[in-house]
């Protein structure tokens, strides 16, 4: 009776047939034959090994591991079998077991490059970077002209953020693969992370030259160009990336950042809206779009986007900060305070937020709280220019001039301040120093007029002075200031060979107005209008002896504060006394249609004074102001001109008044002839205009 066991000859035939079927890809037939052999010889190494290989090829790694381990048990030093076992273990997720099998294979056969290559992958999966790089170095040394180990080593370094090491491997790889765009792209990534931006850009440009259709290369080049400050070039790169992959939202994100940098806010809103359509829960996209809306002065839209960003990410300190900035610009500083406090609860040691909180407190006339915030910010960052500037304006509003003017110098380091420090090799003037002195303007015409009142003080202390001024002021200043003063034009300042020292115009206040008493000794008025033009205007607009000529200005074009410093003309004229028999417009800008509409609706006679260009002909505006009996204006250049001319000027100030005016009281030391009218918090202009009307009615009744 047969026992079913196969003879040696039968086993040889089966083994040969199984190998043939296996090689032909008939894995099920091969497995069946392997099993027949194993039924007779359970410990047959080759059959166990090949059964494991066949199972692995069919994806049955768990069963494959069982057979391969049995094979290893028969021949523990067989490197090929250990390598195959490790590969099956790796695929099944047992990376530690795989690494152990590959290590045993290499112990048995150190030159087994497949096992070493496989062990690299296991080390990478286990996060054992140094072990992976060690094996890759062996592979690279064994095949110096083979780039793959170098590229893999670079990938390992990129994953581990070992940027310099990655660059080293990639430099070797590019020498072997000079026309491989992927290698150049990886090199650019590593270079960018080390801050070698110019080299990164060059690598990306090489990538694009080799593969122009790779959108990621164009986008990354855009990121690098933006970091280099080449914003227009960066935008062009992102546009090319989007032309290749128009639906890639990350490319839209990169592009929107460039648009914000370029202050192309409308385009930024459009780009960010595309992002939000695809990612409606992207808090950062709402945050960025709010910045674009803020740039467009669409404060309500900015506020809505910031609210959405905060609802998605309540812990986003920047969103709370920006929300406070929007509210503050809207005149809602008390609400802004709570936003800044919320931001600080998330990011306590942020001097920028402390500075903004200080400004909000100052808006609310809480000077003590404002100064505390600025001091806290300066404790964290002693050279924080924004906080020094904020502290300066707070002190100046409270007429603490010595300390205020000392800190006022930090305006040159503060963001969003007008003017830049003069680029010159000549030193700044110190009182007592001899030589030719250039005084240069730094801000707007209003400040030039205000600080011009200190030029006589300077001339009392220095002989040779050149004052650079807006050309529109030359006639007025030349007529008003001492003849020995030389007047030059801005923005084309004299060549530095013509002066020995220089001084920013605003520094005159620190030198000559450090105490309130210094204002009392100043000359007023210090500007003189052209008497011939004054007479002509007076004869034209107020021929009657008892007629009062009142000049009004109701708007400022200041891009930041103009919206709350201006008053609608209809509201403005409705608040004037009936006895104001002759009104003339001192308002610069194109306001003809507004005047016509108000005259038709309110029946008010307001002469636009067509013969005087109030923007370009400031000498003519000065003559017009001088011809008036009274000037009423919001805070703009007109009030400085009227005050410098010694004209009775009534200045209408918002609650968030500029630092140039004292915090309290109706008078200002800059212009003794001026009277200040202030909004109460959240009260609008009605109460201001009512008080003005009452005061003028009393004045007119006594004249």
Tell how many strands the DSSP assignment holds.
10
Number of helices: 36
Shape: elongated
Within the largest sheet, what's the order of strands?
7-6-5-8-9-10
Mean pLDDT: 93
Topology summary:
Layout: H1 8-23, H2 27-40, H3 45-57, H4 61-74, H5 79-92, H6 95-108, H7 113-126, H8 129-142, H9 148-159, H10 163-176, H11 181-194, H12 197-210, H13 215-227, H14 231-244, H15 249-261, H16 265-278, H17 283-295, H18 299-312, H19 317-329, H20 333-346, H21 351-363, H22 367-380, H23 385-397, H24 401-408, E1 437-440, H25 445-452, H26 455-461, E2 465-469, H27 474-480, E3 486-489, E4 501-504, H28 507-512, H29 516-520, H30 531-541, E5 549-553, H31 562-565, H32 569-574, E6 582-585, H33 592-602, E7 606-607, H34 618-627, E8 630-634, H35 637-644, E9 649-653, E10 674-678, H36 686-702
Parallel strand pairs: 1-2, 1-4, 2-3, 5-6, 5-8, 6-7, 8-9, 9-10
Helix pairs in contact: 1-2, 2-3, 3-4, 3-5, 4-5, 5-6, 5-7, 6-7, 7-8, 8-9, 9-10, 9-11, 10-11, 11-12, 12-13, 13-14, 13-15, 14-15, 15-16, 15-17, 16-17, 17-18, 18-19, 19-20, 19-21, 20-21, 21-22, 21-23, 22-23, 23-24, 25-35, 30-34
